[in-house]
Write a structure and sequence with these properties.
16% strand; alpha+beta; 302 residues; 11 helices
């Protein structure tokens, strides 16, 4: 394991082998109170070493107008999508649905499974010559930065994390969140979306939500780590390890065929399965979307 950065802030490590990667993603997973292995980390895999900007931020509007753009898009999504989602009433359910179908939002998608994250760090053939990344955030430790109304809700419900019902109970309107502060001006909430379709279920997904849409999550984590060491880590997967990791994930059945049920996922898996291993990028179509919109920088393919 080669460390790029230690000490204050986000710890960044370059893994030197697949075995080292497996050891790192399960670090701290043993819960002494339960006597069981229950990792406190949420994981996010990316094919490149990009920041944690949301799809809303990647629209590249001035930060001063971002809230207005978000509000107008969300209002129109609810208006025009109503006939397809007439049973949805909660704003948090609407936000989850919008993210799931590609509307730019302030949400980022994560997973409880390190293996799902590894899949999304290695699933694009034309990125096999670039380093991949697995982000790890201790969503249990992140609760110390929450405002009291959210912390109290978790304690009352004996919950480690949120779902849309708990969030709605504390904040019926999403805009209400912005009126609160926690341990810092900004705070991050991790919550499980409703089971909108099999993709969300199979990918063991959850979302992150920042109360301020003009704040980058990686910048917030950098600051939060100075007060809560170990809150976040970034594991760099060198390009030379990608094909080995990819093949081993396939052998585990961690593939598009399982994570993205349907013909799109099946076709993407077959395309990759029958492509030659190569250190050079291999031309590939845009893979089917994950359960939620996949984060990429403005210059990357979306």
């Amino acid at each position: 394991m080669a460390a790029r950065k230690r000490g204050l802030g986000i710890r960044v490590d370059v893994v030197e082998s697949i075995d080292a990667l497996m050891a790192e993603v399960f670090t701290g997973s043993y819960d002494r109170g339960l006597g069981r292995y229950r990792s406190p980390f949420a994981f996010r895999g990316m094919c490149g070493d990009w920041d944690l900007s949301t799809s809303l931020q990647r629209l590249r509007h001035p930060l001063s107008t971002l809230k207005t753009i978000e509000r107008v898009m969300f209002r129109n999504f609810r208006k025009y999508a109503y006939h397809e989602a007439v049973s949805i009433k909660s704003e948090w359910e609407w936000l989850s649905l919008a993210q799931h179908h590609g509307l730019p939002t302030r949400l980022l998608d994560w997973t409880f499974s390190p293996f799902v994250a590894m899949h999304f760090a290695t699933n694009e053939l034309d990125k096999m010559d670039t380093d991949g990344v697995v982000w790890m955030v201790d969503f249990i430790a992140s609760r110390e930065f929450l405002p009291d109304v959210l912390s109290t809700s978790l304690r009352k419900n004996a919950a480690n994390g949120f779902n849309v019902e708990l969030l709605e109970g504390a904040f019926p309107k999403i805009s209400d969140v912005e009126l609160h502060k926690g341990g810092m001006d900004a705070f991050a909430v991790f919550f499980e979306p409703p089971s909108l379709d099999p993709r969300i279920i199979n990918q063991f997904g959850l979302f992150s939500f920042l109360n301020r849409p003009d704040t980058l999550l990686n910048e917030w984590l950098e600051q939060a780590c100075t007060r809560s060491p170990g809150l976040a880590r970034k594991l760099i997967i060198p390009a030379r390890l990608k094909w080995e990791l990819r093949d081993k994930l396939d052998q585990m059945n961690m593939t598009e065929r399982v994570l993205m049920p349907g013909l799109d996922g099946l076709s993407a898996w077959l395309k990759r399965w029958y492509s030659p291993g190569s250190p050079r990028p291999v031309g590939a179509p845009v893979p089917p979307k994950r359960a939620t919109t996949k984060g990429k920088p403005p210059s990357s393919r979306v």
